[in-house]
Amino acid sequence: MTANPPATLVSDPSARAARHLAELDAQYDAHLAALREHAVLAQAALGNDADELAERAEPEPSRP
Q1: Most buried of the four, 16, 31, 36, 42, by CB within 10 Å?
Q2: Nearest to 10 by CA among 25, 22, 20
Q3: How far is residue 11's CA from residue 50's CA, in Å, rounded to a whole number?
Q4: 11-41, pLDDT tens digit by residue?
Q5: Does pTM surpass 0.90?
Q6: Is 27 exposed, middle or buried (0-12, 13-18, 19+ CB in 10 A)?
Q7: DSSP string of 1-64?
Q8: How far apart are CA 37 and CA 48, in angstroms?
Q9: What is the distance of C-alpha 49 from the center of its chain?
Q10: How far apart are CA 38 and CA 43, in angstroms?
Q11: What is the rounded radius of gyration, in angstroms, for the C-alpha atoms of the chain?
């Protein structure tokens, strides 16, 4: 839970706008970090799937 800002900040439009922009910037950074993490996980999964498909297409020869 966030603390309430002082009354002077609430009534000052430029302070409210600055606070709002800072919140949007923080949300943007959090979303961007989540998207990057998702991309890394998706790329790893894709690599695993590609390896699995390649093995199915050309399985390693069995040794006698």
Answers
A1: 16
A2: 20
A3: 58
A4: 799 999 999 999 999 999 999 999 999 999 9
A5: no
A6: exposed
A7: -PPPPPHHHHH-HHHHHHHHHHHHHHHHHHHHHHHHHHHHHHHHHHHHHHHHHHHHHSPPPPP-
A8: 17
A9: 22
A10: 8
A11: 25
